[in-house]
Amino acid sequence: MSHREIIIGSLLVLLLLVPIILYGGKHEVTLPITTCLIILLTLIWCREQKEEQQLTGVSWWLLGFLGWIVFNAWLFSRQLYASFTSALPIFISSLIFLIIQTFQPNKKIINFFIRGFLIGSVGIILFSFYVYLSPKFPSLRMGGPFRQHNAFAGFLTTLLPLSLYTSMFEQKFKLIWPIISTVVLTALILTFSRGGAVAIGGVLIVFLFFLWRQNGRQKFIKPVVIIILLMLTSSALAYGLYKIKTVNFSAVGINVADSPYASEIPEVGETGVNSRFQYWKAALKISGENPITGTGLNTFEQEYRRIQTDPRFFSVDPHNVILKILTELGLVGVIIFTMFLIFLLWPALKSIWQHQSDPVFIPLFIGLIGLLIHYNLDLNLTFPAHYFLFFTLAALLFKPKYESPTLLN
Q: Model-level pTM?
């Protein structure tokens, strides 16, 4: 790899890790720092650009979605300031998508990005283990730098297919990647995220299916055995860390709950599943008042307070990305965003299915699917880091012309 490719790959990694480290992007310096990184990335990339690039169909749908956010906020939002301020991370992360689409990183950059992203993320997870085991961290559910278990689980869901793929196909530093997979799975289990559990199941099913399709039945047994061993090892480690956490609590006189979910059930009937049904029901009720235009970006919290009848249930987010868009941006927003996803995912799926793309796009595709599963079950999009995560992976996944298949190298 050239020095310029290494710098570009490193900047892409930083564009994801910096917002995650800064409390999931909620720190006030997140947007200025990421803006500087984007400018630096663009300047470096421009020096090697030789051909004039045109925006693809998926980019035009994204621009249409951004345009609707502005138009909707200006004319229909019930909280104009909140809508515009919450749109900033969407616009900046969309800018990353458009830049990546314009300059089209080669396979070397994408491979370097995956390795760097995994290694940097493991550093974050290991520090999160340290914080989790401290009695000063009151929760039995790991939240990492997000300080919120569901949002942390969404981030880890993205890492899972990337780490599994490198564990099985990466030729360099072979012993490192299974360790990284074990660390990621252990952290995922310790979030005790219900959405995370569903996303893990979805990711593993899709991952194994593509492995079977790529390698055939004869080479399918080994990956299954590897995944089973990783799951068993991670479960044992997670159980051990959880027990250490409860011992640390007892040592400083903190009463230990019987379950990591105990603090979430102050009254009978308040469970994670029941809560989600309440949020989804409220979102449908709010969207019914303004089905076409919605109430404006980032207005669900205010609107939910207005119609709330049961004090046991409250959320700033409906725990479902489609319902969030429907409530806040209306049917127009849902249609535009759905078209963006179709133009993004269909070409990638078609090329992977027909063995016309490099296998490196498989974990990127599965990671994006895992994110979408998680976004429809849990609270994620109140954290700007998730916008950076989603749009960066989406941009790296989509290529107008996919390269011929070869293994990671």
A: 0.92
